[in-house]
Amino acid sequence: MKKVRLGIIGIGIQGTSYADFIKEGRVKGMEIGAICDIDPTKKEIVSEKYPDVPFYENYIELLESGNVDAIITTVPHYLHPEIGIAALKRNIHALVEKPAGVYTQQVKELNDFAATKPELTFGIMFNQRTNPLYQKVKEIIENGEIGEIRRTNWMITTWWRPQGYYDLSEWRATWGGEGGGVLVNQAPHQLDLLQWICGMPKKVYSNVKYGYQRKIAVEDEVTAMLDYGNGATGVFITCTHDVVGTDRFEILGDKGKIVVDDSKKVTIKRLTQPESEMSATIPWGDVSKIFKGEGISKIYSEEVVEFESVWGAQHIEVLENFAENILEGTPLLAPGSDGINGVRLANAIHLSSWLGKEIEVPFDEDLFLDELNKRVTEEKTSLIKH
């Protein structure tokens, strides 16, 4: 195989982006094998934009056409595991979009099946993992440069979505259509990066607002407190109603601090000695000088690194890495099995708010699904009444 023939299942905004990247020759080792969408009107658009690319209205027909070696699932969240399993069953490599699914049980089913097909490539579109900024942050943490983590804070409110966005289609921002709001639609990358860099919390307590500033059933405002089980804590804040938005990620360690601003600039402050040693050894007279700003340069060094981010480059890198894994065995940047971690974190945040209490991670997955299904049912009943 010289090139991977990719089947794009779902040719909306994201699917079209991937098709264009490949058509323009920007993804090494990959070509478009076929395109699928349940909307028959897309056939004419596809034939104009991508002549000679077969079009299917049924993804099973695409999988069994012999035209594809691999697929990507740019479809509603609930369908990612179902389509991923269907592809792997037919010995077709699978790259699923984020989130890997809506609830952990369905993602587990996908992961378990993928584990029975180790010869196939199973990846997830966590394009932020290719971002050199977050790779650097992860490296600093793993190298112990700021010591043991004491606290994490991430405020990511740059997802402003007006009511018109939610009104685009009936499935959007619904429990039955998307399985949630900002946690499953806009913020999965940050939930993945948070646990990828800092580890999974052991407990979650959240305050979540549903339809707070928008006429929707799902969440548009989230504040979650994280307990890592070793004394370290965290706060994760996100929403879709902040028109000016903030993206600030802080990680405090016992030997320093990392601050990420706007996913573009990283400031690393490395202490000359661990904070606990400073606390035990610095005389109070010297501390008062520090408060006045005297001798502060002797306490820590500061490094500032800024990164340029070209739109689409990260997605292309994931697609290329996926192709390289199939063709050459290059290790995956984002193995598909990792997708369950962000879903588990989002589920825990939802469940905590639904039950009004702290949730241990892992949690009762049957209970979560029961609570989710209650909301799906209530939503259907409400639609019938209206």
TrEMBL record:
Under the heading PANTHER family, the entry gives: D-GLUCOSIDE 3-DEHYDROGENASE, UDP-N-ACETYL-2-AMINO-2-DEOXY-D-GLUCURONATE OXIDASE
GO MF annotations for this entry? Answer: nucleotide binding
Give the top-rank taxon of the lineage listed in the UniProt record for this protein: Bacteria
Domain Gfo/Idh/MocA-like oxidoreductase N-terminal: start-end pairs:
5-118
What are the GFO/IDH/MocA-like oxidoreductase domain coordinates in residue numbering?
134-258
Gene3D superfamilies per the UniProt record, alphabetical: Dihydrodipicolinate Reductase, domain 2, NAD(P)-binding Rossmann-like Domain
Coiled-coil regions, chain positions: none
What InterPro entries does the database record attribute to this sequence? Gfo/Idh/MocA-like_OxRdtase_N, Gfo/Idh/MocA_Oxidoreductase, GFO_IDH_MocA-like_dom, NAD(P)-bd_dom_sf
List the Pfam families. Answer: GFO_IDH_MocA, GFO_IDH_MocA_C3
Q: What organism is recorded for this protein?
A: Bacillus weihaiensis
Q: What is this protein called?
A: Dehydrogenase
